């Protein structure tokens, strides 16, 4: 997955209709790193998501950056995961905890165009990532 926030912001400003933005989000999900089936277990499920979402994480021993692997059984959710990972992937715990993800969602008008249950699931993913960062030594 190599999409960065600048590309996502540019695409969201380029597309006029939400139908086009949804297609873009779904396309983002196609490029996600695939999670091994062996990691799709109960312990890795993210609670609060409408669809099934699994998350694992690891820490780079040299940089202390966190690497996340998330996957879902829903195409749109995989795209939302890609947006979240563009903000958080391979960052330090401090960078993760300091990033204004709600501001990003507002800038993209994302939550206004998702069902309340999808929005809650998106926040559940963010919460799990932030909890992981806090446990790894973030402020």
Q: Could you explain the architecture of this structure?
A:
The protein is mainly alpha-helical and 139 residues long. It has one domain (5-135): Sufe protein. Chain: A, CATH 3.90.1010. Helix content is 51%, strand content 10%. The protein is built from 6 helices and 2 strands, in the order H-H-E-E-H-H-H-H. It has helices at residues 5-14, 18-30, 75-88, 93-98, 101-108, 116-135; strands spanning 53-59, 66-72. A two-stranded antiparallel sheet has the order 1-2. Helix 3 (75-88) packs parallel to helix 6 (116-135). The model has no long low-confidence stretch (mean pLDDT 92).
Task: Name the features.
139 residues, mainly alpha, Sufe protein. Chain: A, 10% strand, globular
Can you give the mean pLDDT? 92
What percent of residues adopt helix (DSSP H or I)? 40-55%
Shape: globular
Kindly name the structural category.
Answer: mainly alpha
Order of helices and strands: HHEEHHHH
User: And the CATH topology?
Assistant: Sufe protein. Chain: A
The CATH level-2 architecture is identified as Alpha-Beta Complex
Question: How many structural domains in the coordinates?
Answer: 1
Tell me about the largest β-sheet: 2 strands, antiparallel
Which percent band covers the strand fraction? 5-15%
Task: Identify the strand order in the major beta sheet.
Answer: 1-2
The N- to C-terminal Cα distance equals: 27 Å
Radius of gyration (CA) equals: 14 Å
Number-wise, the strands total: 2
The number of helical runs is 6
Uncertain stretches of 5 or more adjacent residues: none
